[in-house]
Amino acid sequence: MVIGAWGGIAFRVSENNVMQLSDLQENSSSNLAKHEIMAGRTKYEWINYAAGDLSLKIVFDSMVCRRPYKQYMKLKDLEGYTSPLLIGKKRIGYHSWLLQSVSGRFSRIMAKGAISRIEVTCKFVEYYTGE
Q: pLDDT tens digit string along 57-103?
């Protein structure tokens, strides 16, 4: 069962394949101009929307996923790539997301250096193309 997708990567849960997705967090903000007023209150002026950012965690575990390190490296190869993010059938945000960084925590290493579990944090930035 597919629970989400980004850049051709399907986050799915099935009997033989689990890409555990968690801690999805989206942030948005605005750019403001600050006007200092002598003998008065500071005034703010809304200028535009700032680019949003998004982070999520993925776990590659050999108990439920084949070759965690290979999956991790595939994800690292996508740094700089842009694509919409879908969770269920809902698009997250209004624009595409650029994969800004990927960091992995190798939390279980087996005999002879086999990597059995990698906890990955991905950071995205909203990518506006002007369309």
A: 888 888 777 788 888 888 899 999 999 888 888 888 888 999 999 99
Handedness of CA 103, 27, 8, 11 (dihedral sign): positive
String of b and e for 107-131 (b: at least 16 CB within 10 Å)?
eeeeeeeebbbbbbebbbebbeeee
* Phi then psi dihedrals of residue 66, to 5 deg: -80, 135
d(CA 11, CA 131): 27
DSSP 52: P
Q: What is the pTM of this model?
A: 0.75
